[in-house]
Design a protein that fits this description.
31% strand; alpha+beta; 146 residues
């Protein structure tokens, strides 16, 4: 498992910016946004979601992606990612480029360069449980730290 997961919006092979303020507002439901020069960072409670989410972009130009550092893969994380995918139209992939997760009909929007890096291809998802599936239930003892 990788140490970072990216939530990124693409359309016809190009990255698309979304509202920076809406992304920070979404992340604030789960964690604590930074202030001042750290306005693009959101931290999470210990053993929830991840260590840190970094919004790539700016208030003026919009958010290009969310980089999630050291995610804790459990049901809460899967639901968090799926909700972000639905709300913003994000795709999700790891820095190891194992697989990209997309919503229905999102396959054709991924850039060719990303597609060629994916060792296990693309998976369309219709529910949170399809993201980073594991054999165990989401019990604190069965969660994976990416």
């Amino acid at each position: 498992m990788s140490s970072s997961i990216y939530l990124h919006k693409f359309h016809q092979g190009k990255e698309v910016a979304v509202s920076f303020e809406e992304v920070i507002g979404f992340l604030a439901k789960y964690g604590t946004p930074g202030v001042g020069r750290y306005v693009n960072e959101v931290t999470f409670a210990v053993n929830e979601i991840a260590e840190l989410a970094n919004v790539v972009g700016s208030e003026a130009d919009g958010a290009l992606c969310i980089a999630i550092s050291r995610p804790l893969i459990d049901d809460q994380f899967r639901q968090f990612v799926f909700e972000a995918m639905q709300f913003f139209g994000f795709s999700a992939y790891e820095d190891a480029f194992d697989r990209a997760y997309v919503l229905r009909d999102g396959t054709n929007d991924l850039p060719h360069e990303l597609l060629t890096e994916l060792s296990h291809g693309i998976q369309e998802v219709t529910r949170a449980e399809q993201l980073w599936p594991c054999s165990g239930k989401s019990h604190p003892d069965n969660r994976e730290r990416a």
